[in-house]
Amino acid sequence: MDTKTLDSEIVEIHPKNGYLSAKELIAHRHSEFEPQSGGLKRTQNEGTAPELEELRRAQEQLRAQLSVPRIERLGGRALAIWNDEQKVAEVLRKDGKFENFGYSEQGRLYLEYYEAMFLLELGRLQLEYYGSVVSIEQAYVLLLGKLESEKYTNYLVYSALSRAGYIVVRHIPPEKTPEEVTSADCIWALLKETVGNEPVPDHIKTSPFYAVVEKRMEDIKELITSQKTEDSKITKESIDLEFDSRKRKANEKPIEEPPSKKEKLSIAGRSLVDQLKNEMSYSKLEEIFEKFDIIQLKSVDDTKEDTTELSSLKITFDLHLHNEGFKKSSPKPPTFNVIILPSQTSFPPHDEIAKIQNHHTAPLLVISVSESKQIQAFLYYIS
Amino acid sequence: MQFSFPCKRKRCFHKNVNYTPFPSCENGERHQGRFTGLSVEIIDPVQAKSLYDSGCFGKGSKSRGGPASGDEDETLLLGLEESCFLAYYLNTLEITNLAGSSMDFQVFLEAAKKLNERFVENLACYLYLKSKNWVIKSGIKFGGDFLIYKQSPRLYHASFLVIVQTSCDTDYYQSKNLKGVQRVAETSDKDVLLLTVHRPKDVLSPKVLQETTVTETIVRRFNYLTFVQSKQQ
Hints:
The complex is a heterodimer of chains A (383) and B (233). Chain A is α+β, with helices and mostly antiparallel strands. Chain A has 15 helices and 14 strands. Chain B has 233 residues and is α+β, with helices and mostly antiparallel strands. Chain B folds into two domains: 18-115, tRNA intron endonuclease, N-terminal domain (MutS, DNA mismatch repair protein, domain I); 120-220, 3-Layer(aba) Sandwich (Trna Endonuclease, Chain: A, domain 1). Chain B has six helices and ten strands, in the order ββαββαβααβββαββα. Chain B has helices spanning 45-53, 80-89, 105-115, 119-130, 175-186, 224-232; strands at residues 31-35, 40-42, 59-60, 76-78, 93-96, 135-138, 146-149, 160-166, 191-198, 213-222. Chain B is globular. Chain B starts with 30 loop residues before the first strand and ends with a helix. Chains A and B meet through helix 13, strand 10, helix 15, strand 13 and strand 14 of A and helix 4, helix 5, strand 9, strand 10 and helix 6 of B.
């Protein structure tokens, strides 16, 4: 192994260890290391001699655990280089299933810091920094920063959720796209065009239904204008007409369309403890109950004024499930939005959650990272 | 993610199925309670039984639940919120002080506020939950303000541990406090219900509470591991 010093003298470095034999390699491939159980949890440092001794032993154990040689195949790893100017890891060679990692910019694939760190820890990535391989220890400093920061908690959460089996991606704010165009929308647009001379909007023209609907309307027009008797006989038996009539029926009542997705999802403004109002005892004595039913739920309208301002909460990640056909290029709405709560931070109160739910449709998962770096997820239900 | 509330029936079988949420006053006669400085005491055993059997109000002075010791000198002790509810909202209770003179809403409120500075907020939450047909007991043994039950503590386990917050004091949103009560509540299949009260400054009559509003928040611990595993099948 050769390196150049600042003086450009060639110094030869001999590795301290020799090469491992085949047997040793196999033995080290899956070395198990049992952590010592430490008895009861304690919350405060006492500074006593036995405690210091115990701490020293624990640290030694940790060091021993971390310095167990890891055996990995050199091949079968992706390769990335660290760009120190832009502070990003650029992927040079992909390996294996890589579709859920990284983001492309100007034809190059980059890894987020947490993705690079995660792949490094799994032994699936070789990160190089000015031509030399970065160790995991160095990568912690390089990717997550020297001081404990937001990046570190983000990485912890990313790693835990990825290992649990979620696809974790950087949060993408939902676009304010109109509702999906249905074939009914196409029919209405076409009718408006022919009857009212209104041009068909572009977002309807691009819908996959548009061409089909246009064709069918042409056919029907043809049918009506030509008035051939034999035609009607055939079409009566054909299944197509059955479908047709049913669709037409549905289109006659456009008001009955289900409310927008957002309305269906949001339960804001409703009490969560109303269940017992269905009981017999309530309906029998409803009058008495109503007499003192004077405290009301704070309605959503009261808070509406401040809903326009953005909440101080920040959604960091979106979670997707593996079996729902996730595609990086065209992500579906996520299963969860993740908010990360660093240790010592209070939980967001009702109004904060209400504000953020106004802008997002996926359920919020609040993940708290405790002082001991333990991760616990919480779900909010609010009125 | 739809919300479903925990509601577990108790194993022991009670024949008392006829559940009535409110005590009735026969011949317009109100129950007689004496404010002792800590709680309102019902001395007459017949009245005590009537209050406990219909609506599960109060607690026997010598029993865990309703008066059940059989001792003659056992009384029924009503909490501040429930006695206030019975006296000034249902009109089935008359509260007198130790000297024997009747206490009106204002006097009682002042006395209760001395014992608990958050009495008005607690009362607002009590009324809010009572109007939704819950049986409300003290939540002190689980570290909260109330425990709320379906029908009766004899028949069901409590569904929620209620914690009352004001809009300026959000103590229980602190990480360690919330996690603490959650763990305690979870071991007995309850959810933690945080009620935040927004209220006007002065309360002069029972009706003034009308301007008070509450918001409900339930924070539940979520096992992300089992969730993703259940979805993978």
